[in-house]
């Protein structure tokens, strides 16, 4: 079965009894990890218990396609069911999952985390089309998703946060669920139980992480500020941010610019075009984006998006340094902005 985005929360809280295999796939690695741990915790009382839990890598499964099925047939010594927890990219897991699905899985539960698939991937289709399995897409949080996580954390600790501060949190975060939650937890710790958070509090607290966000990196490229871009990328790599996520986040920013640029070209005032963007741009950043739109044309923005997509593809294909691929693409865009000279 395919679990729709609106159904994920309910599915994770009460997985149907007929489901004994779940695939977590998409581009948000933090969300995949969070959901995987959530499901594993419901299946196994102790996820570190080797007598009832088998952990497998994509490399192991690729070398032995029968391994998932064989592991699922092993008796759980200290739990009701054997948990087989598999982590890999995706393609190398297909044969192993097919083999496992050809056997009885009544005494096991399989969790597969695939970090390099799309919704059209054969592995995803395998889980979607199986009566006893489910596929859950894990993609970058929308503004509404981030707002829900923020509300969950602030409500839990009785923290009040004003509207502008909440909007800034959502603007700054979002490319990775685990990283977003971590930053929100830091804000909760800063405020303390029953405390409050204003815009200045959030801006100061996210100062360092803000320089790491894809929005800040994209803005530096759009402004043609090489030093600022280099500084942001160095911080991103030093904290092990995923190159694909950085590139994809920058794509989102330039797509927003492209949408606003096309609207402006069609006659909408620049300021109004920016205010009409979805997800909304925080009011404190709207003037900056409007200034960028006076330099960038729709054609040049379209080219920038294509460059970023090509860089993402190069990273996924492997065979090189991911950070170099991403940095070169962003530097090229940054230099193009400088050469425009307007």
Q: Could you explain the architecture of this structure?
A:
- The protein is of the alpha/beta class and 342 residues long.
- Helices cover 60% and strands 11% of the residues.
- The chain contains 18 helices and 8 strands.
- Helix 5 links the parallel strand 4 and strand 5.
- The radius of gyration is 22 Å and the shape is globular.
- The N and C termini lie far apart (53 Å).
Give a brief rundown of this model.
By secondary structure, the chain is α/β, with parallel strands linked by helices. The chain has helices spanning 8-13, 29-43, 58-63, 67-73, 94-101, 122-129, 143-156, 163-172, 177-191, 199-205, 207-212, 214-223, 226-238, 243-265, 270-275, 283-293, 298-317, 322-340; strands spanning 2-3, 21-26, 53-57, 82-88, 108-114, 133-138, 160-161, 196-197.
Topology:
Elements: E1 2-3, H1 8-13, E2 21-26, H2 29-43, E3 53-57, H3 58-63, H4 67-73, E4 82-88, H5 94-101, E5 108-114, H6 122-129, E6 133-138, H7 143-156, E7 160-161, H8 163-172, H9 177-191, E8 196-197, H10 199-205, H11 207-212, H12 214-223, H13 226-238, H14 243-265, H15 270-275, H16 283-293, H17 298-317, H18 322-340
Parallel strand pairs: 1-6, 2-5, 2-6, 3-4, 4-5, 7-8
